[in-house]
Amino acid sequence: MSTVSHRLAVHAVADHTVSPELAEWMRLLLLDYHAITGGGFHRDSAVAARAAVEISEQPTAFFPAALHGVDGAGKSGFATVESAALVNGITAHGLELDDTFEESSLHPGVVIFPAVLALASTRQSLTGEVLRAAIVGYDVMCTVGVLLGARESYGRGFHPTGVAGCLGAAAAAARLLGLTVEQTAHALGLAANMASGSLEFLADGSWTKRLNAGHAAATGIRAAKLAAAGFTAPATAIEGRDGFLVQYGAGVVEGRQLALEFGRSALDTSIKFYPCCRYMHGNIDLLRDIREQNPELGIDDVARIRVGVIRAGASLVSEPAARKLVVNTPVDAQFNMPFGAAVALATGRATVDQFDDAPAVAAELMEWMEKVECYRSDSLEAAFPARWQAEVQVVLRNGTVIEKSENSFRGAPGDRATWADIVQKAEGLIGAPAAKALAASVSELDDSTVLGGGVAVPRDTLTASRA
Q1: Start and end of every MmgE/PrpD C-terminal domain (predicted)?
Q2: Cystine design at 85: which of 58, 114, 155, 310 (Cβ 3.0–4.6 Å)?
């Protein structure tokens, strides 16, 4: 019987060829990962994560894996492989600026790169090997996420990045460890058994969403190591009666296929330019455009701000409506369409500083937030999940209605980010000197370079990022 785990395992260990387009894109994703990890280094959640693990100033046999950050994108010490994956995943996910695979509504980079870079540090792996493993991780994580379904997963209170990420990290780690098809299938089954990650952070703006990324990275490594040692898992761990798809979704859904094409998931991954939930980005794009075209617009001119919200994301960014008018932490703002709409239309921006200062900014913009109405749109639902589209209406007091829509969010495959875009994004997070040094370090990697767990950035180029 060809189980889901077996089919994923065959794909994970196959002899894949990396096209020039895919190789270039993986380096861009790696650059983005290091930029957001550097930018997130001083998040309180990242500081707490580092304090929770043992750290060595120098790499040793017991602490071989680099912790990424150092006020930017370098290395801030060394830990065990699993601890490094945990901490780096938490750190990278802190800003909500990490890449997104829209069809399954998850963030692969903050799971897959922490896993493969931590594991690579013990093997002196070549860049080509590490990136192939990362591509496999993206493939498995994103494809399993599609099988799971964002709407179904969210409906059961689970975070797709946390649960599907465990399987992606396990596949990537299994490939880097050189596991067989059988061992890899067991690794995937073990990861399915250990998967975790709830949405309850929405209740009070706490940090567990960030933990979900790091936990998935570390759990994938643990699953692969257990499988390498002979530990077994159920063959039907994913699709079985009590398996992964039933636990975290609606089981096997008719019409959803396990469509595996090497590198397709990575190539279809979107880049984020706003530090908040991806479901908010399209509306922020459009409202910023309206602000740019109507710079004189004031609160007294606006009667209503109507924004279409994709149903799968409503429980994250717009429901319950009364709760979204309470902003006590940055996390409250990161998952808050009224807040995102207000900052975009009132200020023409949506920056890390604004989300960091969310309670004060929300108090200042509360009149704008109270005018935001989130609605369901048949056209948005018809395109979802293959395409994330956006539409907004700004209704003025004089009766004028300003309407805008877009077929893809900025940074999505339909509006793909460039290397220059990521460098500019990095400059805003870690300072221009560090961003340029980081970009140079990543661009100089070739397949025969020993990656050894990350890329180096000179300490004297680094600019302290915001706490």
Answers
A1: 274-431
A2: 114
